[in-house]
Amino acid sequence: MPSEPISHLPDGSNLRDWLGDQARHFGFDDLRITDTQLGPASERLQEWLAAGRHGNMEYMLRHADLRSDPQLLVPGTVRVICVTMNYLPEIDFEREWQRMADPSQAVVSMYARGRDYHKVLRNRLQDFAKAIEERIGTFGYRVFTDSAPLMEVELARKAGLGWRGKHTLLLNRESGSTFFLGEILVDVPLPIDQEEESHCGTCQSCIEVCPTQAITAPYQLDARRCISYLTIENSEAIPVEFRRAMGNRVYGCDDCQLICPWNKFAKRTGLPDFAERHGLGRASLLQLWSWTEAEFEKRHEGSAIRRIGYSRWRRNLAVALGNALASEGLPDAEKVLIRQALENALANSDALVAEHIEWALGLTAWSAPF
Questions:
Q1: DSSP 3-state helix, strand, coil percentages of the chain (rounded to 5)?
Q2: Which of 17-21, 48-52, 235-239, 348-352 has the lowest mean pLDDT?
Q3: Active site (catalytic) residues
Q4: β-strands 249-251, 107-108: how paired?
Q5: Following CA atoms 19, 156, 108, 176 in sequence, which dihedral angle do they give, to the nearest 10 degrees?
Q6: How far is CA 229 from each of CA 54, 107, 233, rounded to the nearest angstrom?
């Protein structure tokens, strides 16, 4: 393996420029390259895990050593090619706020309304890697996108794809935070790109807007309080103290992204893969509650939502329906329909869903969150 960075192709042309062009050819919006040295980020990860802020995501604890060093994950790795792919379809942020204020509506995180990004990015990354191999010859590589113990955001930050926002997501000038990350770990010493400075300044909008105060301080996230974690990663009952704050969010939470000034500049995606499917940006809670398990499996085929399973899906909806029952802004006639739907489902629900239905039916005396 050459000790000096490889910067030119066999024909003498600039390799870095060619990689950027190829990344765009395969649908990626930006590409940067970094080495494998994560420095203080590894120590911060250990501190975060030791504090238990990962909740019941035990896989993070089991593979902490691999996360701290990409060379342990893929021996021989000397560089990481990091790419972004914008996912934001034609969405009006003001309309998103309006839907969250309407207790009858079901709010699904913007990134999850289209196809499963894991599949979209992984296939394109694999094709990209093969194209590189055809151009420079055989080399060692593996592709990843949120699919392995890898500190993706830190690698992307180090590569210069953006800076860490105070909500811990990656931000950049062109796409805000509405993009997915992908990586190709390679054994080729490519030229390294420069890091970008932070541009959050004194803004704390993401911290102030968080419904559950999951952003405990700038750049500090407690997953155990985060609605995205509670509705997706968490397989157990949602802690009672966070149920009211969930409002009508049934899969993920976008508040910290919707409020971020940098997302005013977020580019819309041109990829049809991320277009809204099955009316997930317009559906009511009762519409989604009416889905049978077979309908859930069918309509979420090829979607990231499918992996949480029907029971967790119903758990989340039951909480949102309970919050709708307790709201002051919903007509009584609609509350009657919600109560009937919950009562009708109770007898045939599993223990997890039944517990949340019972909680929801007991909420009518509570004050409204909306």
A1: 45, 10, 40
A2: 48-52
A3: 146
A4: parallel
A5: -90
A6: 9, 15, 5
Within 8 A by CB and 6+ apart from 217, the residues are 207
Separation CA 258–CA 107 (nearest Å): 13
AA identity, residue 222: D
Question: Which of 370 and 17 is assigned the larger pLDDT?
Answer: 17
**What's the distance, CA 40 to chain centroid?**
24
**C-alpha span between 223 and 54 (Å, rounded):** 6
162 burial (CB, 10 Å; 0-12 / 13-18 / 19+) is: buried
Gap between the Cα atoms of 115 and 112, Å rounded:
7
Alpha carbon dihedral 151, 117, 25, 157, in 10-degree steps, equals -20
Instruction: Write out pLDDT tens, residues 355-369.
Output: 999 999 997 544 434
If phi over 0 gives left and psi between -120 and 50 gives alpha, with beta otherwise, what is residue 130? alpha
Token pair, residue 366, equals 């509570």
Phi-psi bin for 160: left (phi > 0), alpha (psi -120 to 50), beta?
left
Tokens 């758990």 appear where? 315
* Mean pLDDT value of segment 84-99: 95
User: Taking 80 as the threshold, does the pLDDT of residue 158 lie above it?
Assistant: yes
User: Alpha helix locations (H) across 26-178?
Assistant: 40-50, 58-62, 64-68, 70-73, 93-100, 117-136, 152-159
What are residue 85's DSSP bridge partners? 180
pLDDT-above-70 percentage for the chain: 96
**Res. 279: pLDDT tops 60:** yes
pLDDT of residue 6 exceeding 50? yes
Residue 133 structure tokens: 């191999």
C-alpha dist (Å) from residue 321 to 84, 140, 305, 318, 359:
36, 51, 19, 5, 10
Pairing of strands 79-86, 30-34: antiparallel
Kindly give the residue spans of alpha helices, DSSP state H, lying in the chain: 15-25, 40-50, 58-62, 64-68, 70-73, 93-100, 117-136, 152-159, 205-209, 227-228, 240-246, 255-258, 285-289, 293-299, 309-325, 332-346, 351-361
Q: Is the pTM of this model over 0.90?
A: yes
> Is the pLDDT at 1 greater than 60, yes or no?
no
Residues 357, 360, 363: CA angle, nearest 5 degrees:
155
